[in-house]
Write a structure and sequence with these properties.
Layout (H helix, E strand, L loop, with lengths): L9 H9 L2 H46 L1
C-alpha cells in the first residue's frame, strides 16, 4: 500500500484550530485525497511497467523456443 505524506501550511493549521473548521477540513481532505490519487496512479504505472517488461520477456522466450 502506498504511503502518503501531507504537509500543512501555517495558515491552514491556524484556520483549522482557530477559524472556520469546516472550510479548513475541506481543504485538508482535498489535499489528502489528491495525494492518495497521485500515489495510487504512480503505483499503477509501476505495476504496468513491470507487467509489460514481463510480457516482453515471456514473448522473447516463446520466440526462442519456436525457432
Amino acid at each position: 500500500m502506498p504511503k502518503v505524506e501531507l504537509n500543512l501550511e501555517d495558515d491552514e493549521l491556524k484556520e483549522l484550530l482557530l477559524g472556520d473548521r469546516d472550510k479548513a477540513m475541506q481543504s485538508i481532505m482535498a489535499k489528502i485525497l489528491d495525494e492518495i490519487l497521485k500515489s495510487e496512479a504512480t503505483e499503477q504505472i509501476s505495476i504496468m511497467v513491470i507487467f509489460q517488461r514481463n510480457c516482453s520477456n515471456a514473448i522473447s522466450v516463446v520466440n526462442r523456443l519456436l525457432i
